[in-house]
Amino acid sequence: VALMATLPTTDRLLLGPGPSPISSRVLAALSSPQRSHLDPELLDLLDDVRGMVGQVFRAPADHLTVAVSGTGTAAMDAAASNLVEPGMSVLAIVTGYFGERLAQIFARQGAYVERLHVEWGRSVDPAAVERAMVDNRFDIVAMVHGETSTGVCNPVAAIAPLVRRRDALFVVDAVTSLGTVPVDVTAWDADVVYSCGQKGLGAPPGLSPISVSPRARRGAPTSHNFACDFAQLEAFWVRRQYHHTISSPLVYALHTALSEVIEEGLDARWARHQTAHQALVDGLAGIGLELFPDPQHRLVSLNAVRIPPGIDEKAVRARLLSRHGIEIGAGLGPLAGRIWRIGLMGSGATTGNVQRVVAALAEALGRKP
Ligand SMILES: Cc1ncc(COP(=O)(O)O)c(C=O)c1O
Known about the structure:
The protein is an alpha/beta fold. It has helices spanning 24-29, 40-57, 72-83, 97-108, 126-134, 156-165, 185-188, 214-217, 230-237, 248-264, 266-286, 313-324, 351-365, and strands spanning 13-14, 64-69, 89-94, 112-117, 140-144, 146-147, 152-153, 169-173, 192-194, 207-212, 302-306, 326-327, 329-330, 339-343.
């Protein structure tokens, strides 16, 4: 008999770029009895999820608020495949790895994509967005709110009115920001805003909340992608017609996670993430470490930490995992080997977890806390 891998039995403290830890309530929800995708009990849960997704996005009542079956990447595909007709032009604001992915996803749908590149580690200047739009008419402007590859938060609220004035559709990736920092689809008047389950909301990956404006659906082509066609998703989620077999355990988990977000309150949740972030900045300073982005650009839920010279960064991460049971992330692309990424998201964003990761880093680096 071939040796089989076994299921995990020990806890890991997930402080990487996602997934974040799931609470015991969310974990328990996953083992509730299975229901079919058209079971009346499941459909009632979907109604709740639609309402709660609208609440956490602060979306207007006329937005379609559902969850795409799939991870954040599927939600990116949903945004692009439902909006783009060949020949459309898109301004993609690229401040890191995920902005570049967004640009590529729009290009694959046949759009002409112009990239506004920003140095990794900085947020985009709204004036640069304004300049990019002066001589060109874009059908769509797409950007990432919380850039997970660099730990930067982009000023969506300042860019939103510029996009609206130019009459373009506005697509915002809130994968790492939702549930951790203010996201306000109503104030932004944004057209497609999507997130994921596994970061600020504290659910497992696999169902990705999305908010779609009526404007985004007017005159939209038939989606090039059947699985995430907005019209089909609406038929299933709202009119209860079969489209795909949504995973009931993931619905239970997302329903529970969203309930926890709403019980805590968005303001309190954002404040908790801010407090944990500040505790981390202070704790890291105590062992001679600092964050990569300047303070005014930082995303509190994803902390990019400069790796000191001469450190075997992979060995440090391996030691954190094996000796301390803590996962942190590596750098991506040009930041590989230059930063670690410490996520403080969802139920992981506590000062207790900050103390644990700072103490573990101090031990692994041989520094006195
Ligand atoms: C900003 C951002 N967008 C999109 C994604 C893609 O999400 P997923 O990995 O869930 O497919 C991620 C994942 O980390 C992300 O951080």
